Amino acid sequence: MTELPHIKSNSGRYALMKQKYSNKNKGRVSVVSSFIFFSFIIPLAFGYAVWRPMTLLWTLTVKQSNHIFWMSSCCCWILFNVKVFEELIYSRKLLLVSNIVLDICMIPTTILPFALSYDIFQIMYKLIFGHPLLFKTKKIWGFCILTISFILNNIGFYRGTHISTTHYTIKTKKLKHSKIRIAHISDIHIGSRLDKLPQKMVNKIIEENPDLVVITGDLIDSHNVISTDLSSFSAFKERNIPIYYTIGNHDIMAGEEYVSSILQYYGIIYLKNQVTQIVIGDEIIQLVGIDDVQSVTKYNEIFDSITSSIHNNIYTILLHHRPQGYKTSVQSGQIDLQLAGHTHDGQVFPFNYIVPLFHSKSYGMYHIKDSSNELVLYTHPGSCAWGPHFRTAAKNLITIFSIESSN
């Protein structure tokens, strides 16, 4: 296939940063806090995660201990900032390197919560019993921390590089007498990953023989992605399987203009705050696409602007990147199924317990009711992992919906 020319999008990360930092006071606070977080807090946390188990397993002098800590922090700073700079400048080479770097950075991340748990336990033990833990006990802790981390890393990298399929059946009176099969994928994050998993995903979807495929955002997450990175999606076009897409926050950061040009090349239809009707056999369904927005207020504004285009007696599926706005959707009585993604169900332990604090409908199927209206909300856990090829929360997933007539 022919490579598309790479355009520097006017709607990508630079535009977002300019908009975010246009207010001088807020902009300065954001720049300073981001610099402190990425250049100090993260490297120090990673350095601590490497340093702590080593101090438990071996007797080190203060000088040796300090050297290990600062060398680990510096290494993590260098590795982590490869990704930061790849995001800030147009560098394909850094994108290729960052795919490896993020996987390396995942190893101390799995150690961190258990290293912290040791220090918390040690402080409590000393307060209760008046003396520190014995060296033998410390060695057991250190061995356990590394063993658990080793197991989690193996599980995480296995689950991050494999994909599963799940099926749901939904009954409706809005179909005449037939069944429609829809493949829902989300958060593929091409850019974070340049491996074979998207091709495996496409092959599995084709085996399911869907009538259409829908993508709820974050297909691309770097403006250094080139069109051939999505070559696996050409299989849908060759088999005349329609693909519909709504934009996600990472696609926006990659640049809406450039992402749109790639989508068009592969025949992926971008539903930008619009409604479309699709004929499948002798059935008609409706798709509503709403661009990714952070606030429910903005979602409501967009929804209200397109609601007059939605026909009430046709089975209607709404695509929106985040699991929000469903209260507005159900109150309208016009939406039957709302599909979302974004959360990854936390992706990595213990974030799967933190994400629900920000998104109450963070993963799975939910039946949303309001007086006489009802819709089904489904939050996808992500078809591929974001950042490292790693996940210990949920699985990489393809979701197949069978929409069947209940008449």
TrEMBL record:
Domain Calcineurin-like phosphoesterase: from-to ranges: 180-345
Superkingdom assignment: Eukaryota
InterPro entries: Calcineurin-like_PHP, Metallo-depent_PP-like, Metallophosphoesterase_sf
Any one GO MF annotation of this record: hydrolase activity
Keywords: Membrane, Transmembrane, Transmembrane helix
Segments traversing the membrane: 27-48, 68-85, 94-120, 140-158
Keyword Cytoplasm part of the UniProt annotation: no
Pfam families reported in the protein's UniProt record: Metallophos
Family matches, as SUPFAM superfamilies: Metallo-dependent phosphatases
Protein name: Calcineurin-like phosphoesterase domain-containing protein
Organism: Entamoeba dispar (strain ATCC PRA-260 / SAW760)
